[in-house]
Amino acid sequence: MGKMSEAEAEAVFAEIDADGSGEIRLRELRDYGKTHDGVLDGVKLADFVRAADTDGDRRISLAEFKSFFA
Ligand SMILES: [Ca+2]
Ligand SMILES: [Ca+2]
Question: Which of 22, 46, 65, 67 sits between 20 and 30 A of 8, alpha carbons compared?
């Protein structure tokens, strides 16, 4: 995963946020990786959450996701 447009980032966020809570949890990332073969290979998901989660609640909000990717 690299740079995305805002619209792309929103679309990917919505796909990963399977329960529609508006936040991505580690478990949702793991599930996404399982059903999308290869896209998250080589990504340490826990490290990714730590890096993208700027307010430290261990969930990635859409704003955090966008500032990380878009
Ligand atoms: Ca969620
Ligand atoms: Ca957060």
Answer: 46
- Candidates 51, 65, 54; CA nearest to 21 is 65
Residue 9 C-alpha to ligand 2 middle, in angstroms? 16
Closest ligand, as measured to the CA of 25: 1
In contact, 28 and 19? CB cutoff 8 Å: yes
Give residue-wise pLDDT tens across range 28-52: 999 999 898 777 777 789 999 999 9
Domain containing residue 14: CATH number: 1.10.238.10
State the amino acid at position 24 in one-letter form.
I
Reported pTM: 0.86
Ligand nearest to the CA of 67: 2
